[in-house]
Amino acid sequence: MDPRDVRELLERVRSGDVTVESALEGLQELPFRDIGVAAVDHHRALRQGVPEIIFGQGKTPEQIIRIAEEILRTGQNVLVTRIEPEKAERITAGLPGFSYSSLARTGKVAHRPAPERLAGPVAVITAGTSDIPIAEEAVETLLAVGLQPDRVYDVGVAGLHRLLSRSEQLRRAAVVIVIAGMEGALPSVVGGLVAAPVIAVPTSVGYGAALGGFTALFSMLTSCASGVVVVNIDSGFGAAMAAHRMLLDRGQ
């Protein structure tokens, strides 16, 4: 349940427009509802400031549609990650209002704007063009939680002047997400330039010794830039949610 709806309900109880019994009826399905294919967490928006987000990989289109319908029934927006085009076509046909981003591999139904956030932009940086799909997953997730992404793409260490030309833009960011494959050096460089929290995302981009992202992961975990935090390989979603939690803790 959206915190805005709960607040409105409580205000109406206080004003006498809604009885306590009616309010209890409206809240009876918290904290979750078992719909057979999933136990949908309707309480998550109250606990974490964002409704449950559907991980599409491994789920059938029919399961995704059923879960999405349950989330929408309570007045919340829907975001689905990791869905391939063929699956997205079937979801689009069965779920009114569903829109799909093939680059990010995400889909959404947004029947109301995300809550307005006070925080400045979240910079989303990629080392190369090949890292952009992971960045776009982060971007779509940031938009879903009401944060404004600021894209800074293809500024890796092979041409460091590209990054340095955007330094003022980076310093305006409330949080910086840095996405890189190969040797994963870019987060250390960015971590030495900005004061904002830096979230590093290793990607599986790279030749053989890149080991599907493990080389970048190990490099980022051993960064000499103090305070750089690292999420899982190819987890643009995880990085965006980390930024969301950081800023939520600061009241932003």
UniProtKB/TrEMBL annotation:
GO terms for molecular function: hydrolase activity. Residues 120-252 form the PurE domain. InterPro entries: P2CMN_synthase_LarB, PurE_dom. GO terms for biological process: 'de novo' IMP biosynthetic process. Keywords: Membrane, Transmembrane, Transmembrane helix. It comes from the Bacteria. Gene3D superfamilies: 3.40.50.1970. This is 1-(5-phosphoribosyl)-5-amino-4-imidazole-carboxylate carboxylase. It comes from Chondromyces crocatus.
